[in-house]
Structure to design on (207 residues):
């Protein structure tokens, strides 16, 4: 039995649970702030974008890991996501999403639909930035563990997508039921941002 290979799988599973859970947290939090009919679409598009980016980054994983400061770029993107989330969460916790009006006739309905579409676009943009940042982080972590083992890299990629699909909907439901948890999620994202920036600065030898 190859214990080193089993240990690598264990490390990949642990990394995927943490990093895919973070990505799912962003998708779930962003979707929770939308009207009910837009939530499923936001989650689906967000997961599809994250999966696509992980596949693209996995293809160029060795080149990606060779870029000095790649984690700093990812951390800067995640910092921007935190700032957007802070502003969005103030609106999310100020309003009752479930009691949003279902629509009206004439000009009011058009304004409402326009507002929902703008909110949906903002949520998708936030998800996109987070997907880029966290996909970089996830692939760099898995590639560092897998090294030259393509099978392990593919396993880690598939597992990350599966974990993300499972966690996003669950997180959205929890956020809707316990809205104060959204701020805990934000603090967690800030912690991840600091750690990613720290690791990036350390990698380029500044500290």
């Amino acid at each position: 039995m190859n214990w080193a290979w089993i240990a690598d799988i264990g490390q990949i599973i642990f990394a995927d649970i943490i990093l895919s859970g973070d990505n799912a947290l962003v998708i779930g939090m962003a979707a929770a702030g939308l009207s009910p009919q837009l939530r499923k679409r936001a989650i689906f598009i967000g997961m599809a974008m994250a999966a696509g980016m992980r596949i693209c980054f996995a293809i160029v994983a060795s080149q990606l890991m060779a870029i000095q400061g790649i984690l700093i770029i990812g951390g800067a993107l995640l910092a921007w996501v935190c700032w957007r989330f802070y502003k969005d969460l103030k609106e999310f916790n100020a309003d009752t999403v479930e009691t949003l009006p279902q629509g009206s006739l004439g000009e009011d309905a058009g304004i409402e639909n326009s507002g929902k579409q703008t909110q949906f676009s903002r949520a998708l943009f936030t998800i996109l930035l987070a997907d880029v940042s966290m996909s970089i982080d996830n692939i760099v972590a898995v590639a560092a563990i897998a090294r030259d083992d393509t099978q392990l890299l593919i396993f880690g990629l598939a597992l990350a997508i599966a974990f993300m699909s499972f966690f996003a909907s669950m997180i959205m439901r929890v956020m809707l039921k316990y809205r104060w948890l959204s701020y805990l999620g934000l603090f967690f994202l800030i912690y991840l941002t600091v750690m990613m920036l720290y690791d990036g600065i350390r990698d380029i030898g500044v500290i």
